[in-house]
Sequence to fold (161 residues):
Amino acid sequence: MEYKVERLLVNFKTLEEFKKFKEYGMQELSMLDDLEGNIIENDSQSPFYGIFYGDMLVARMSLYKKSAKFDRYFDKTKDFLVLWKLEVLPNHQKKGYGKALVDFAKSFNMPIKTNSRVHSQAFWEKMGFYSIPYEMDRDLGENPLIWNPYEKRDETIDKQE
Fold:
């Protein structure tokens, strides 16, 4: 099944939708002050993307473009995307929503960096992401996973590492 990924509007309705997700937290709450002070209904660029089932947001992610000057993950320095807060509501999991969001991010044809949450490593590997060696100064407690459209990896080698 094919799902339509939409850029989510920065407004109070989106903030209310986010409260349904397990990973709702400080990042969204910190948006509240900005929203209250600056919101022009539906007129702000948002880093959030989602998929609706009817009028209910059932899957979401954040997708940020980062400049090559911040690239410490890829072999050749380049602009890249940071994908985070990928989440699908429990009743809608295992239906392809997460894959649709990742495929949407990949459609920009840019390297992508993410961090796996608890018990999600297998999902990211299935999507073609792989772990890179942990570096204390760079990763600060995160375990980055990357996907690079410019790099062809041999899946059999990855499984042996």
